[in-house]
Amino acid sequence: MKMRDVSIIGVGQTKVAEHWDRSLRHLAGEAILAAMKDAHIEPAAVDALYVGNMLSGLLNGQEHLGALIADFVGLRGIEALKVEAACGSGAAALRLGYAMVAGGIHDLVVVCGVEKMTDTVNAETTTGLAMAADADYESIHGVTFVGINALLMRRYMYEYGVKHEDFAPFTVNAHRNAASNPYAMFRERVTVEQFSRARMIADPINLLDSSGIGDGAAAVVLCPSTMAGEYRREGVVRIRASAMATDAVAVHDRPDPLWLSAAEASAFKAYQQAGVGPRDIDLFELHDAFTIMSALSLEAAGFAERGKGVRLAQAGEIAREGRIPICTMGGLKARGHPVGATGVYQVVEVALQLRGEAGPNQIPNARLGMAQNIGGSGATVITHILEAQD
Amino acid sequence: MKMRDVSIIGVGQTKVAEHWDRSLRHLAGEAILAAMKDAHIEPAAVDALYVGNMLSGLLNGQEHLGALIADFVGLRGIEALKVEAACGSGAAALRLGYAMVAGGIHDLVVVCGVEKMTDTVNAETTTGLAMAADADYESIHGVTFVGINALLMRRYMYEYGVKHEDFAPFTVNAHRNAASNPYAMFRERVTVEQFSRARMIADPINLLDSSGIGDGAAAVVLCPSTMAGEYRREGVVRIRASAMATDAVAVHDRPDPLWLSAAEASAFKAYQQAGVGPRDIDLFELHDAFTIMSALSLEAAGFAERGKGVRLAQAGEIAREGRIPICTMGGLKARGHPVGATGVYQVVEVALQLRGEAGPNQIPNARLGMAQNIGGSGATVITHILEAQD
Q1: CB contacts, 8 Å: A103 with chain B
Q2: Residue B16: strand, helix, or coil
Q3: Which of B19, B87, B287, B327 is catalytic?
Q4: What three-state secondary structure class fits A220?
Q5: For all residues of chain A together, what is the average pLDDT?
Q6: How far is A176 from chain B (nearest CA, A)?
Q7: Domains, chain B, ranges and CATH?
Q8: Quick one: which H or E segment has residue B228?
């Protein structure tokens, strides 16, 4: 069955920060209204709103975000719901929006990722993040989400003979790029020495291995590619691929904890859909929740051989001038990681690069960009490949 | 753009109960495996799993249900995510599954609604249910979810000159039907006198106006109608319509609190898609979370005039022998209301009726059935119309 090509005609985002004075709906509203303005559309044209969010129930005491946010942004009455796939919720919502347009269910869809991780009720943010892991078989033993990633990092260092300081280039690169992104949470550059001396969080993961906890929202407007010209003449970005895969949630249930098989499956399904390979990708917004996840993602998605992800970073190939620039606007590490919003931030950033609107962070002649959003420690992975549409 | 017709080829459900000995994944697993067996499919044939759930984050400390449940039922690797739309989460997940098959994204999809409301962590169930309301403008004042419905019921009684005991037929009918449903939570018949003397919960809503809190899961298997014959010769049920609409979450933001405009919009969109009207519907599984919601639903969906929903019930028209049988397997009131699962339970029950497998509860010659799942006090409404496919 032939599906329709889908394009992004508008993007919007809030700064990632501790927004003590603003609720979930205000954050989502700012991003959505910015995206709708960017797309030159009126509320009456919108068919549906899909919201990606992970933590609003536990941390904000609010579910039902679909109807709540639709109403707040002037879209009362439309189809609206929330999608949850742990830290992959944002891209999962985008995947849903893409499918609704590709399959002909809707013409004009708004997708928003939003998360409010500071100013919480019911539980601490750490308790919230642990819900991405297996409550009955991992969290119940007291291991935190960063603890699980620490186990993976330790194992990686042991298996491949890598030292902690070897991971520094991921953080240095992310902070360098965030410094010139006005929407980023941490805009200070970081040196290798600062990285090595940072406060320990869960050995061997220290503060500068870890993405920042923050509040934020990002949004995109989708429509069939053939209709995109009605809304904007330039800067249309086509979704060339959208692919999702899963794995066991508990790390101990995976035959090989150091291989993100869902990331591999998701990326290679996406390559197949787009008819391209890793060599064709001009930039890669990967899910650097922790430096170890950057290394594992580069390997699973075919940019580095097994055990060589860190080496690719050390060789400078992940910088804006390198072979495969990653985290070009700061990544989860330095732009910040409002978990359910992150997948949409990544896609907004790729879209800005393909539109040539990434400012000082622009990757010259970027034509094809990839975004990969990961839920948990690799159990849900959604990959999108975007292309500048002339 | 032409979309594909979609059919239900398998259904499964657990008994609704206080399942103290079983976790979320066990409940979901029982329903999913039953549905897959009923559909005669192997795990390798399944393309995706969509899980409807509202409360798992707050009450069970577990998000990431898509990957978690997919893995548990032998579907590791497939596309899987969770959909949340308050008490409408189940039908929202079904709507997503429908769209994915109708639009040609996937061929074989499993949809599961699951909820575990007893044996909770982090908060009480009442706190969880309040997340369907507006946390910032309703719940913050201390009103519970039943309290909001009580305000609606009191206003309805005042506006239309209806007494509390007039609502009794809804409860009597639901319990009568549940008595012969082995999956129902409350299988005792209830008299008008018992109804009137039941313990007050939130005046004027008493215990027997209210649906039961319980644990449960229900599942369906979907495929293109043209492929359904490959899996089963008889008992295929076609989805003739799938429609979703929203409204303001906070009741005070609606111009007319006694009119469920999203229920009206959703039902009439569904009628239009199916090319039918209320007169053509043989049974209606409505969202009787409270008796007041039954009355409002009958009115909004066109089965009774404004203010006459209670009269329709008093006239016996909602019974199995009446003009529009509702809650034929016990409804939310007596089958039980595991919130995120309810929308799928409703569709399973309609499917069983259309297959002629409703046992003592069978509506003779049922050909066209409707299920309407409501999130919050009417802010999200999803309507499906199903037809027996020969």
Answers
A1: 3, 99-100, 102-105
A2: coil
A3: B87
A4: strand
A5: 97
A6: 32
A7: 6-123+213-230 (3.40.47.10)
A8: none
Residue in A68, A139, A380 closest to B134 by CB: A68
Mean pLDDT confidence for A253-270? 98
A133 and B64: CB-CB below 8 Å? yes
CB pairs A-B closer than 8 Å: 228
Spatial separation of the C-alpha atoms in residues B296 and B318, rounded to whole Å: 14
pLDDT score recorded for residue B160 = 98
Amino acid of residue A267: A
Query: What dihedral angle (degrees, nearest 10) is formed by the CA atoms of B338, A341, A276, A10?
Result: 110
Q: How far apart are the first and last CA of chain A?
A: 26
CA atoms within 13 A on the CB side of B45: 15
d(CA B225, CA B181): 29
Q: How far is CA A14 from the centre of its chain?
A: 15
The neighbour count for residue A24, using CB atoms within 10 Å, is 26
Q: Which of B100, B105, B379 lies nearest to residue A67, judging by beta carbons?
A: B379
Please enumerate in sequence order all residues whose Cβ is within 8 A of that of A267, keeping only pairs 6 or more positions apart, or say none.
A243, A300, A301, A302, A370, A372, A381, A383
Query: Are the Cβ atoms of A63 and B82 closer than 8 angstroms?
Result: no
Assigned token pair, B24? 């979320």
Q: What is the DSSP letter of B288?
A: -
Residue in chain A closest to B82 (alpha carbons) equals: A84
| Single-letter code of the amino acid located at B252 | H
ipTM score here?
Answer: 0.98
* Per-residue confidence (pLDDT) for residue B89, from 0 to 100: 98
In chain B, whose CA is at the least distance from the CA of A374?
Answer: B64
- Mean of the per-residue pLDDT values of chain B: 97
Query: Considering Cα of B190, then B191, then B196, then B199, what sign does the dihedral take?
Result: negative
Question: First CA to last CA across chain B, in angstroms?
Answer: 26
Closest-CA distance, A347 to chain B, in angstroms, reads 19
Cα–Cα distance measured from residue A376 to residue B297, given in angstroms and rounded to the nearest whole number:
40
| Burial grade of B200 (CB within 10 A; 0-12, 13-18, 19 or more) | exposed
